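Note to self: keep these together.
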Amino acid sequence: MLTNKQTIGTKKESSLHRSLKFRFSGSEGAIETQVGDYVCDGITSQGEIIEVQNGSFGPIKEKVKTLAKTNKIRIIHPIIIKKHIELYDSDGSLLHKRKSPKKGNVWDLFKALIYAPDLAMLKNLVIELAVIDIVEKRINDGKGSWRRKGISINDRFLEVWHSSVVLSRRSDYYQFIPFKKSEYFTTQDLAEKAGINTTLAGKTLYTLAKMNLVEKTGKKGNAFIYKRK
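Structure:
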């Protein structure tokens, strides 16, 4: 059995991050494990490295590339479908709980992957989307962002586990190109078919083009025309 190291890099992590690294490292695995020059979120009993990444993949790009040369690695990326927000006063009393109007979906992957599209093509890498609902705990302590009127985000918790989407090979990403190989399409076409906004559709196509899965074939007015490769 591997030995858990719970004292490295855990002070600022959220409860959500912590629960995911335990879940995917497994009861026989270890967390906060040194591998070469890096401390990894976890490692399974089979030796697969676990990295939980909530935001952009850019900050972990070089770390993942280096580790993937000699190790199998799995990036866990949370996809938050629903978020409940609990607001507490500075004494810890719950003031109210509400549901955030923002809803996520698996296409949100491309908000993170756009900064490191080449990671998805690494031989030893798997990207797994954890499709979940969360609770976000906020405190009205006057120390938070001015956008939230001084309210601080204190923690985030896993509330509901829905499913996971595993992306382990190039062909897995074709599910994000809902067109036949013979079809031509624009960013607007993808947005309408996928039920996402054009900004996210644009990020998706940019990333897929970098992955050599789609290509630009021309323009229609100001819009680029794409097709599957």
